[in-house]
Here is the input.
Amino acid sequence: MMTERLKKAINEQMNAELWSANLYLSMSFYLKKEGYDGFAHWMFKQYEEEVQHATQMAHYLIKREATPKIDKIDVVPQSWGTVTEAFEDTYKHERHVSQLIDLLVKIAAEEKDNATQDFLWGFVREQVEEEATVLAIVEKLRKAGEAGILVMDAQLHTR
Ligand code: MG
Here is the structure.
């Protein structure tokens, strides 16, 4: 059995993952509207990943005899100035998520729940990959002119 404090913390993170999902879905729509089909596709995959994170957390709660509760999800931004700004926002958000996951690991340690710490390490490792992948895209976008951005748009279709 997990402690109430830990159940609550994981449930909050599950809802935070759903907010992230909505953020990336909103970005995907923005990018699609701007005519960047490849970036929109990449961002849609990002949305699907976040839904998967929330689902993994919900299933983990169920396995540990807790009940996942989907809360009211706050509104997300709807537009960005440029494709570069959207990806800069993604990078900023992923860094924030990494901090949230680190905090969650700390709570699991304080509650002496080894299984939950082990479960969370997967997310810790994934955040390192997420941040690196997004930062690489941001750095390329910053160097690229409009023509370069269109080349990247065509490449990101394959994610
Ligand atoms: Mg996530």
